[in-house]
Amino acid sequence: MSSPFNDSRSQAAVGKVRSALLCQSPQDFLDYKNSDPLRDLSSVVRLDLDILRTSQSLERNGSRVMANQEQDIGIRLPPGKPGFFRYRTCICLIVTFAMLLFSLDAIFYQGIVPHIPGLVGNTLSKIGIQVYETNTSAHSAPSWYFPFPKGQRHQPSLPLDVSNATAYIDNLRNGSNGSFTLGPVASGGEYSTQASSEITEVLREKLKNLDIEPAEDHVFKSPFIVTPTVYPQPKKQQANDGVRTKVISVFNAPAWYRRPGLPNLMAYNRDFHQCPYYKCEVDMEAKKLQHADMVIFFVGAIGSRPPPPRPVGQIWVKAYWESPIHYGYPKNYAPWKSVFNLTYNFRVDSDIFAPNNFLAWRHRSELLSDEEYLQIALKKKKPVAWWVSNCNTQSKRQEYVQEMKKYIDVDIYGKCGNLKCTKTTMAFCKQQLNTTYSFYLSFENSLCRDYITEKFYRNFESRTHIVPVVRGGANYHRYFPPEGFIDAKLFPKARDLALYLQKLAADPVKYARMLREKDRLVTLGYKHDWCDLCRQLHTTGFPAKTIPDIKAWSHSKTCSEPNDIR
Question: Which residues cross the membrane (predicted)?
């Protein structure tokens, strides 16, 4: 069945919401939201008729109906008689069809969209339906997952497909990256970013369906470029039988981590339903702190609290995803100095490595032809764009760009520039960014070890035809193929970088080659693999160690001052 959203006006409307999600990572969301029209955006609800087809199978014992693999929606009903189920299903379809008409009106007039979340949530809850979000990003999903026809290769397609109205709008309000999946199990992911341990032919075929190639097929190796583990229908390990459930408690979970807008949802496999080892539980409210096997502490938000009582053998984990420039430790540091066993953040040397994003190798069949890339290059009209809201930073990126502007045109959008985008012009702005400019400045606010945010990863979203220029504290050339980006670190001063960009922008053949190399990678989205954490708790465990000085680990000689401006 074809989608009712294939006309150009609808695509443009949906594109507004898709484009608004360029700010993906929670680490930079607070920095970005003040000027980003995302917070004021009237959301567009896409209810594709394809998702209205539900599975004919009914599990009598649990009275649960799930969408099949070709659908984006799952519904869960409480136990009841089959007749009652049919009654509710009819109501569901009627309500959903009404929502479709309602949403079409909202797409073109946008006056009533802010009321949709309450309408959807209240209506569905009254008839006993729980709508859930899952975690596979659309940009690495099969080609039929995209709302745009596959033939429209040059249509900018950022990672979003909307099938769940309530969860989607709540995601927008809470700064999510808008990643959804087909999963047949609530909150379960079709794949995880944890590297797969064995590349079987079955896995290879599943990865192909996701338009991804195994990292093992490529010479370039990096902890940031992974082969996702696929969890379509996990085989439950016998080791789960008779095993005590492991409890992972979070001492002070921030809002973006707890997802307060979605209280019934456990995103990113946090319900462990898809996991081969599933005897784990996450306690976000620290209610089971004394019984937890592992406790995660967000050290930058501890405040003046002392360490809680600690049972023997409990693993304490230091977590935080801001750069060391932007967080510290309690004034009374001594009680916290040597209590942590593990580190959990974006640094490669962390015990639990969890960067702001992961990349995967795009399947070669999804790359455009050399001629198509050349045509994209020839249509570029402006050299450099930069979208920024935090003007005064440790990296002095504002001063760096001002020096660049003496030698090359740089259009600056957002709070720190003279170009603005309102909610009505957002789609146009993002399309301009994708089609008009040759380079995007992915400049970090801090020059700290391995600190890489969405400013870099957003350039690897599906069909984003722009080359990133990076400036940060990470060793980019060690972690990413250097042919697909430009590192400011290779140029002594801002002037040298500007002159090089000017020269490259004037060479469409060379630029097209770089664009093709950049397109070999695709972002997998922001997700941490709770399945692997549960597996490790039940099997190999974690190294028995104590970090002697956690502040020294995170803050000592991990950031540098800029010396490349002029």
Answer: 90-109
Catalytic residue, candidates 133, 213, 281, 322? 322
Question: Which of the pair, 237 or 555, is modelled with greater confidence?
Answer: 555
Contacts 24+ apart (CB under 8 A), 32-39: 32/389, 32/390, 33/175, 34/389, 34/415, 35/389, 35/414, 35/415, 36/389, 36/414, 37/421, 37/422, 37/423, 37/426, 38/172, 38/175, 39/173
Determine the longest span between alpha carbons in the chain, in angstroms. Answer: 76
Q: Is the pLDDT at 303 greater than 80, yes or no?
A: yes
Residues 309, 292 contacting (CB under 8 angstroms): no
Query: In sequence order, what are the beta bridge partners of 3?
Result: none
What are the structural domains, with CATH classification, of the chain?
8-178 (no CATH), 238-354+530-555 (no CATH), 359-525 (3.40.50.11660)
* Mean pLDDT score, 367-382: 97
> Exposed e or buried b for every residue in 540-565, given b needs 16+ CB within 10 A?
eeeeeeebeebbebbbeebbeebebe
Tell which residue, 381, 380, 386, has the closest CA to residue 400.
386
User: 463, 524 in Cβ contact below 8 A?
Assistant: no
Among left, alpha and beta (phi > 0; psi -120 to 50; other), residue 551 is alpha
CB atoms inside a 10 Å sphere around CB 258: 14
**CB-based burial of residue 220 (10 Å sphere; 0-12 exposed, 13-18 middle, 19+ buried)?**
middle
322: annotated active-site residue:
yes
Highest mean pLDDT out of 139-143, 166-170, 549-553: 549-553
157 pLDDT band, cuts 50/70/90, is: very low
What is the value of pTM for the model shown? 0.66
